[in-house]
Amino acid sequence: MYLHLLYDKKFAKSQIGVFEKYYPGQSLYVFTRGADATGLEQYNIMFFSCWSIESLNSIKKRCWEKIEAILVYNATDIHCVIALYVKRSFQCRVYWMFFGSDLYDNLYYRYNFPLIDNERKTVKKNIKDKLKLVKHWPLFRKFAAKVDYFCFWNVYDYELLTKYVNTPAKFKFYTHGLGLTLDHDFTDYKTYNTECLVQINHSASWDGNHLTLLKRLAEIDSERKAKLLLPLSYGSKSVVNDVERFVAEEKLNAQLLKDFLPRDDYFKVIDNVTTAIYGQHRQEGGGNLVQAFQSGAKVFLREDCNLLQLYRDWGLKVYSFEKDLKSLDDLITPLSREDQENNYIKIVEGLSRDKVDESMRFFFEE
Questions:
Q1: Among 3.40.50.2000, 3.30.70.20, 3.40.50.980, 3.30.420.40, what is the CATH number of 197-350?
Q2: CA–CA dist 42, 45 (Å, integer)
Q3: CA 2 – CA 70 distance, rounded (Å)
Q4: pTM over 0.85
Q5: pLDDT above 90: percentage of residues in the chain
Q6: Residues 85, 80: Cα–Cα separation, whole Å
Q7: Which of 358, 341, 306 is nearest to 179 (CA)?
């Protein structure tokens, strides 16, 4: 049996769908945050609400046969505790299904890894977060020391892990989904006549460094020719307040998406984006970036973000915010048709359904 520790329901459907396709009926899916099972009733699911030994033993009772592997989606405190407990009980393999913040938050507070340009958190909140991560660090280290496989699609995040953390983990390709296929011929593409619509990040995350991006755009677009689109439906309220204040003061032509949209409706909106700029120094917003490349948007990433190097390794045309965004022309000039089509093809190749299939068919083989 394979035991999955799921963080929340946002990605659960695709995560469960992958393993039920390749290993049907062989998993127990444990939700450790408040999430209902609507649409997932046909699967073997349980909800875990506390850390007690009784609750831990309840997992063992549900596992009527030996657990061969435990898959940890986001290395939170509770997931680390369960994984270490199950590892001792069953001597199973541990697969870390990488989430993102579960590594980067540790590196930020432990090693001052650069994530935030303008530290605007209140002193109280910053101290509270730091104490939480300091408390978490010993548990995280114990967990990392027991991980057999670090599972993700970005090998540079694995290299970052092994640079800072002592772990025996090996890298395994995994995408949290079934992969991409070529499904259109790209006869429709963005041209010089297309109205410039610039997406700024994908959420109200502190890591997005919104003010750094907005200040640059305010400087190079003095006539406010570009329309800005800022998705802010989740994240920090303080970030939203900072963005609203700056947009008003600088009189930017900006649309703030503060209300949640269903996935398909949201992607219909961002399919109109001609330029996408991400302010993270870390890997983040992968789904949004895939959509940007598939729709022909011109993408700018931070110079030190490892996604910039990864996408260039894959053969995509992608730009550095620091080095390549110097003028209004840099912002509003779209990619050539050839570059748009090439980016579409290369992002599909990098995350292809064939690549996923090759990985998943042998996922549990050592």
A1: 3.40.50.2000
A2: 9
A3: 6
A4: yes
A5: 62
A6: 8
A7: 358
